[in-house]
Structures are given as C-alpha cells and as structure tokens.
Specification:
15 helices, six-stranded mixed beta sheet, alpha/beta
Length: about 375
C-alpha cells in the first residue's frame, strides 16, 4: 500500500501524464506532504485497526479501497471516511494468480474459471468490498461511480530505487528507534547470536533487496538499551551515511558484536528507561517518529513489575504515551504479558519463535 501510494504521490506532484522519470520527482513537495504523517505500518490491516483505536488523533489514512469501504461499513467510526481518488491516477493492486508449475495447468485453469464466474465475482465483491474482475459484474452502489485513471508505473528499476531510497533517507519524517535488548544469562548461545545477526543485518550486513530497504536509514537515530539484572547504559547513534562500510554503520556493528550476556531480567525497568529517553528526546526533536522494540526471551524477574510499569506509563505526557512498543517473543517469553504491553502502548507483538529474528526485525522496520 505504501509503495503504490508513493508512486501515486510522486506521479501527481510531477504534473505529467507519463511514467515517472527521475528529473520529474518533486522532492520538496513529497517531503512537505510527509511532514503530516503521524502513523506508519507494515500492514494495511494493522493500520486500519490503529486508525479505529486512534480516530480522534488521526484525520486520514492511505489504504486499499476495500479497507476504507470496510471501515465505513463497520460501524466503528464516529465520522465516516471520505474516499479521495486522485485525478492524476490510482494504482490497482490486482495481485494476479500465477501458475508456477506447468504440470498443474488443468487444476489452475479450473480454479481461475471458478473464480471468474459472475456469481462468484458478485459474492467476492459483496463480502470483501473488492471490485469485480469481469465486465459482466458491474460494481454495486458502494463503489463511487467515477472514471478511474490508472497512473503510469515507472518503467525501470532505477527510478523505483531512487524514489524509494529518497523517501526513506530524505523525505519521510526521520525516526528514532529504541531497541530494548535482553542480554540476561538465558540469552547465552543461540539467543544472543540470533539477536546479533538480526541487528547486524539492519546495519548493512544483509545485502539482499529486502535487506537494503530494511536497514537503518539516513537521518535516523538509533538507541540500543541492553538490560539484564540492571539497565545498562544506552548507546546512541545518528545515521548520516547509510553505506555498509561507512563509519555510522560500522559503529553500530561494533556495538552489536560487543554485547555480552549474564544476569537476570529487569525487563520493565529497562522499558521505563527507554520511555524516559524517548520522552526527553521528544522535547528537543518533536518531529521525529518514535518507536520501541522490546526483545526478550523470558519473564521479568528483576526491578519493576508489569503492573508498576503500566501504572507509571498511564501518567506519562500524551506525546510520550504515543510511543509504541513492539515486543518480540523469543524462547520462553511471556506471551500474555507482551500482548498486554502491546495493547497498552498501541504496538504489535511479533513472534520470533516461528521465524528467524532477522525476518522479524525486517518486518518491524515497516512500523518505524
């Protein structure tokens, strides 16, 4: 959703009716537009859920047409959304059903023919608010009756890369990502190695396409806050140079490789310290997008309790309360406690036990 929105915005600001070219990208207009961004997400569904929960604070959202229509029909909005279709063009998310194994063509064609039947298309439209894929089934009255112009898509990867990296490094609101890292004794072995690998990948070690987009971004502030029996000193980094071998990324990697394990788990005391750091930073840099990633493999057994932390959190200034926590479950982490924490802070739980921590940390970057 975000990628297609960026293409649409850049095309509209270019003032041209043709596929976007590098010289037509209006960086000033894009940066000005994104100053109003108050929430980002790696999931269209989660974004819609948070909009419902925070509709008094948020005044708009870019999302799929089906999601927006669903919110209007869901009865949870105090004021229905007005859908805006840019006259310069929209991007259709058609997600084609593709045949991967030619030997299964008969079965594939059977499924396609079934899904394209008018009565099935009508049911899909009625139940999911997605537009029919066949001309025999016209959109019903819930869909605006207007001409939709398809925005020309950039014709080469260089334009797309330039647009995306400019957005991440120059145009979006810069972030301040705080990583609260469990280095207690139980993390010894595979736990600390997985954690180090995940963080090293964000600092440039992952050279894959997805790794390039997930790494720490230009203008971003990074804070590492390790904890065990006590909360250890915070380590702060300002990313200016995103090159893998640049001094900024090297400094982050050096800090990661130096992490040592031992001791108990003062989880909520560490989280309290992260909020204190974030709140202090908001005073001098209120326009950054703040988030906290909490990674632990166990239950808190030292320092503040969960109840004490949540009571303290409720008394924070509203701007600091809006800093979301994204807990990552690992090993024997307390699922119920982490879920309550995510709900209380407007964050989301990620499961580092069903896939690698590297994949989880990549996914979280979409929320920072």
């Amino acid at each position: 959703t975000g990628f297609t929105a960026l293409i649409g915005l850049a095309s509209a600001f270019s003032g041209r009716g043709e596929a976007l070219q590098p010289e037509a990208i209006d960086a000033v207009a894009l940066k000005s537009f994104f100053t109003g961004q108050a929430l980002t997400a790696g999931s269209s569904g989660w974004l819609a859920e948070r909009y419902v929960q925070e509709q008094d604070r948020l005044d708009g959202m870019i999302n799929y047409e089906s999601v927006l229509l669903g919110l209007n029909a869901g009865g949870q909005l105090r004021e229905k959304l007005t859908l805006v279709y840019p006259r310069e063009g929209i991007v259709t998310a058609d997600y084609p059903l593709m045949l991967l194994n030619p030997a299964q063509r008969t079965a594939y064609q059977t499924v396609v023919d079934y899904l394209r039947q008018p009565d099935i298309q009508r049911r899909i439209m009625e139940q999911t608010l997605r537009r029919p894929a066949v001309a025999a089934v016209p959109p019903d009255g819930r869909f605006p009756d207007r001409l939709l112009v398809e925005a020309p898509f950039p014709g080469n990867r260089d334009v797309i890369d330039r647009l995306l990296f400019a957005y991440l490094d120059e145009q979006r609101r810069p972030g301040h990502a705080l990583f609260v890292l469990d280095v207690s004794g139980s993390m010894k072995g595979e736990g600390i190695e997985q954690l180090k690998t995940a963080l090293l990948n964000l600092a440039g070690a992952d050279q894959s396409l997805s790794g390039r987009f997930a790494r720490f971004r230009g203008r971003e502030r990074i804070t590492f806050l390790p904890f065990s029996s006590n909360v250890l000193p915070a380590q702060n980094f300002q990313v200016g140079d995103t090159a893998t071998e640049g001094s900024d990324m090297r400094a982050i990697r050096q800090a990661v490789t130096a992490l040592q394990v031992g001791g108990k788990t003062a989880l909520f005391s560490a989280l309290q310290r992260a909020y204190e750091i974030g709140g202090q930073a908001q005073v001098t840099e209120p326009n950054r997008y703040y988030s906290i990633v909490l990674m632990s493999d166990g239950q808190s057994n030292q320092g503040l309790s969960e109840a004490e932390f949540l009571q303290w959190h409720r008394n924070l200034p509203a701007s600091t309360q809006n800093i979301r926590v994204f807990p990552v479950l690992f090993a024997e982490a307390d699922d119920a406690s982490m879920k309550r924490l995510a709900e209380a802070t407007g964050g989301r739980v990620f499961d580092g036990r069903s896939e690698s921590l590297s994949q989880v940390f990549k996914a979280i970057r979409g929320y920072q």
